[in-house]
Design a protein that fits this description.
It is built from 16 helices and two strands. It is an all-alpha fold and 350 residues long. It has a domain at 30-257. The protein is globular.
């Protein structure tokens, strides 16, 4: 417990001071907090509940578009704004209009994604195992194509977000702390959630869903609640990321299935799924490797990340945290009582 307190304090201090210690990497560290949120929310289903979703990126993109529609709709007609005649309107937002629209947009993104998760759960939780994974992957692929054909939000040409009413440096700091708070809120909420009866119930679903149902656990209700939890925080992350980039394009920014959609799975697996700190550790390691390869091994970055995933899946299926627990059990409080161990040995030899 004391060691975990040190981890909490260290992570919080780093998060608060990072923009001042590493001012040239504010955007990259902001993205790190989003990656941590990705890994934690994916693990709610894939690790804690045993439902490997490949479509969680849908809530990220939907949250991005809902936020954009609300932010723009507070001041202008969205259809006019996204038309060729509305190109000059991006900078015509007063500071009060911008911040009010952003706050309402983030809230609407979170609530809208929860509603969507409830609707999707009625269909997709009738599937199990690989069928659930493939079904959610199809959902993610279809979402980008459908939004790309919707002219109201700019179609395939995308949509420009309102311009931040200050200088770029202030914008970077502003959204950095919003990303930090969203990641910390995700961690704190999930930490509390996993220590309740709900956490025991979704673990029971992961271990044996039929037995969980036989014990009286309302499995569909718990599965829906778990997906809604992920959708809530992913919607917020989408709203923040869309405003950070300043431009939303359906396939590469809002619904990047082959990048962010795969990254959130890979990060949880790398750190150790089914744990609280595993996804965080995996997100940190994965993001560092991604940034280094994108900077110094451009052209080889996908080979490097693919190799990392292969090594993880083949040799470290328990993840970094699981491997560390096996190698140094004392650090995790897994020491076996020597007296009990010796007593067992004596009984076995007699």
């Amino acid at each position: 417990m004391i060691k975990e307190k040190y981890l909490h304090a260290g992570l919080l201090v780093f998060g608060v001071l990072a923009p001042f210690l590493f001012p040239n990497y504010t955007v990259q560290i902001s993205l790190l907090w989003i990656m941590i949120l990705f890994a934690l929310t994916w693990d709610t289903l894939g690790g804690q509940m045993g439902y490997n979703s490949l479509g969680n990126i849908v809530f990220f993109g939907v949250g991005m578009y809902i936020s954009a529609i609300v932010q723009i709709g507070v001041v202008y007609d969205v259809a006019l704004y996204t038309s060729p005649d509305g190109a000059a309107l991006t900078g015509n937002f007063a500071p009060a209009q911008y911040y009010t629209g952003l706050a309402l947009g983030i809230l609407a993104a979170a609530v809208g994604c929860v509603i969507l998760a409830v609707l999707f759960s009625q269909v997709f939780f009738g599937l199990r195992g690989p069928y659930f994974a493939i079904g959610t992957l199809g959902l993610a692929l279809a979402a980008g194509e459908l939004v790309g054909a919707w002219d109201y939000v700019g179609g395939g040409g995308g949509i420009a977000l309102p311009v931040f009413p200050s200088d770029p440096k202030s914008q970077g700091i502003f959204f950095y702390y919003l990303c930090l708070v969203s990641a910390l809120a995700t961690y704190v909420f999930l930490r509390w959630l996993y220590n309740t009866r709900f956490g025991l119930a979704i673990n029971a679903i992961r271990d044996d869903e039929e037995k969980a149902e036989a014990m009286g656990i309302h499995t569909k209700r718990h599965k829906t609640a778990a997906w809604c939890t992920s959708a809530f925080f992913l919607g917020i992350s989408g709203a923040l990321f869309g405003n950070m980039t300043g431009f939303i394009e359906p396939l590469e920014v809002a619904f990047p299935t082959i990048t962010f959609g795969i990254f959130m799975v890979a990060m949880a697996l790398l750190g150790g799924k089914g744990t609280l700190w595993g996804p965080i550790l995996g997100a940190i390691v994965f993001h560092l490797i991604k940034e280094v390869t994108w900077t110094y091994l451009l052209g080889w970055q996908w080979i490097a990340l693919g190799t990392l995933i292969i090594i993880n899946v083949v040799y470290f299926q328990q993840g970094i945290l699981g491997w560390a627990r096996d190698k140094w059990p004392d650090l995790f409080g897994l020491t076996v009582d020597e007296a009990m161990s010796s007593g067992s040995e004596k009984r076995g030899s007699s």
